[in-house]
Design goal:
mainly alpha; three-stranded mixed beta sheet; 25 helices
């Protein structure tokens, strides 16, 4: 099972303090968090958690980790679970009554994290090492070309040090994938085939054009005279030699492994097919929704929401002159009419258009938000290597301001079924950038109130909160007139809400009800989107479950506070506490309501 960007929930933790002494709660949290971050150099770099020689040393290391920051391996999972049990016991030494409100939230968050880590350890092998969405082969590329900083000469030297570790980490991943296969855990055939296709694209480029080299050169050149041209050429030559001698052969070994495993795979899509698959899926749902909802309950919620949203879409489609056929067919027909012509290449214009949507959203957000990030957000096209399998997504800014928040827009496919193209263009920008993930993650990172481990997300990204918030902001835009005069845009918003409601049905269908890949496609998803759910069980359920809970809490507060209710203050409460499970968020909202009364 995977967790979402950027890392596992805190696991590699240990109690630090003088012998025989009980550290203060804040000191204990600081110490165990620092130990976890030290154990995950990718997280240390992403969060810039340390400084000086300690940070520099971590910036030269790599652990076995995929695109979502999750370390691979049964041994690591078991060690993490043992430490989580130890630290859960230590956490109980701090009586709740002795803690401040902020400390109580931190304690509840840690408790959830430890318990989740313990529960997940049994299913460590269910996370496929090599797959098309977030596998090791992608994680190494994305981290080094997008997250590893290139600010000066030393960063370039550290990049080359990490590049030399790519081959060894891949070989470790191959060993983990073989061990999983020996235990009867293999990806479905179509996932293996898709990953081989992705590898073929990577291997087709000449070493000088390889993404590890090309992006390195681009980022160095952006620094101009800060790195002399002669040094840049030397660094680029070293990167090219490393790619040719070690990295390309390593990626060829991945391909050989997958080709060898292909005859042993089947087209069964869901985790139900694996040993203890039903239990594994129940744990995934608990992790990604932070609730105790069962697959059957989530499936029913999805069906209810699909019916509600389709009825609203039907009304608008009829207003636009699309009265015949299914909702999906009519929407795709409308969306086809909104797609840009293919000549000249529309992609640069689409990136510029997305920038305009984000800037407009920043202006509109002033009426709804007190808390707004200082860090900027920009729109960039998804890199070619991952573009065909990527969804639109966001990466947070560097804490030191050297990298903005980035809304990544994949534009390989401009077809009518791509959710972020056509009518869904605005709503996707609201979700991924403003006021969605950019507000949520950047406000948290810039907080002067949160303890350091929470503001820098050392415990990872809880999908029900993060994706629930982003989907909620799409609804917020619709509620506040951001689509006025733009019926196709409002229809695109509803289509994306429908998309997330259908996810509840399809994800549970695939993994609990033995749906085939084709059944999910027939339900209205592209093949690529369906394959995302196959390799990431449960995560697709986090969006709408989180959104519905946030709306429920908002309406509870509105009813309780009456004229004292403020939408800005409600958003302050949701954003100020940072990433938390939904039950913890509910406690924070209840405390705000009580104080408001």
């Amino acid at each position: 099972m995977k967790t979402t960007y950027p890392a596992l929930i805190i696991t590699l933790l240990s109690i630090v303090g003088p012998a025989g002494a009980t550290p203060s709660f804040d000191q204990w949290v600081d110490d165990i968090t620092a130990e976890w971050v030290r154990a995950n150099p990718q997280l240390a770099t992403q969060s810039q958690y340390f400084s000086g020689a300690e940070q520099d040393a971590l910036d030269r290391q790599l652990i076995l980790s995929g695109a979502f920051g999750l370390p691979y391996g049964v041994k690591a999972a078991e060690a993490q679970a043992a430490l989580a049990r130890q630290d859960l016991d230590a956490l109980r030494q701090f009586p709740t009554a002795s803690l401040t409100a902020s400390q109580r939230t931190s304690a509840a968050l840690l408790k959830w994290s430890f318990e989740d880590t313990i529960a997940a350890a049994r299913y460590a092998r269910y996370q496929f090492v090599f797959e098309q969405m977030g596998g090791l082969q992608l994680g190494l590329v994305n981290f080094l070309t997008q997250t590893h900083p290139i600010r000066n000469r030393r960063d370039c030297e550290n990049y080359l040090a990490r590049l030399a570790l790519v081959g060894p980490r891949i070989d470790e991943g191959i060993a983990e994938a073989r061990a999983a296969a020996d235990a009867g855990i293999l990806p479905p055939r179509f996932i293996v085939q898709r990953t081989i296709e992705q590898l073929d694209g990577f291997l087709a480029a000449k070493p000088a054009d390889n993404v590890f080299v090309a992006m390195f050169i681009t980022r160095m050149d952006a620094l101009g005279a800060a790195i002399p041209a002669e040094n840049r050429r030397d660094f680029a030559d070293q990167a090219e030699r490393q790619v040719q001698r070690a990295i390309i052969p390593a990626y060829q070994r991945i391909r050989a492994l997958l080709v060898d495993q292909l005859p042993r795979t089947t087209d069964d899509a869901g985790v139900w097919r694996l040993p203890h698959g039903d239990e594994a899926y129940a744990q995934a749902l608990a992790r990604y929704t932070t609730t105790s909802l069962t697959a059957d309950e989530i499936h029913a919620i999805g069906q209810r929401e699909v019916t509600r949203i389709e009825n609203e879409m039907d009304t608008i489609l009829r207003q636009l002159g699309y009265a015949e056929g299914s909702i999906q067919a009519r929407y795709e027909k409308l969306n086809l009419s909104l797609l840009p012509p293919s000549d000249p290449d529309p992609r640069p214009a689409l990136v510029a258009q997305a920038e305009r949507v984000v800037r407009d959203a920043e202006n509109r957000a002033g009426l709804l938000f007190d808390l707004r990030p200082k860090a900027p957000v920009v729109v960039r096209r998804e890199p070619a290597f991952s573009e065909r399998t990527a969804a639109a997504h966001y990466s947070p800014p560097a804490p030191d301001g050297t990298r903005p928040g980035i809304y990544w827009l994949p534009l390989a496919d401009l077809g009518s079924k791509v959710p972020w193209i056509g009518a869904g263009f605005k709503s996707t920008a609201y979700h991924e950038a403003v006021p969605g993930h950019h507000f949520q993650l950047s406000v948290q990172q810039e907080s002067t109130e949160l303890p350091r481990f929470r503001k820098l997300r050392a415990m990872g990204f809880i999908s029900a909160y993060g994706e629930g918030w982003a989907l909620y902001t799409e609804r917020l835009a619709a509620e506040n007139g951001w689509y006025d005069g733009d019926l196709p845009g409002r229809l695109g918003y509803l289509a994306l809400q429908l998309f997330r409601a259908r996810r509840l049905v399809a994800d549970t269908g695939l993994h609990a009800m033995k749906w085939t890949r084709q059944q999910a496609i027939d339900f209205g998803f592209t093949a690529a989107e369906t394959e995302r759910y196959v390799v990431w069980p449960g995560q697709a359920c986090s969006y709408m479950i989180g959104e519905l809970r946030i709306v429920e809490l908002r309406e509870k507060a509105r009813a309780a506070l009456g004229p004292k209710f403020s939408i800005k203050e409600f958003h302050n409460v949701v954003l100020r506490g940072g990433t938390v499970p939904l039950d913890v968020l509910a406690q924070e909202v209840d405390e705000w309501i009580a104080a408001g009364k």
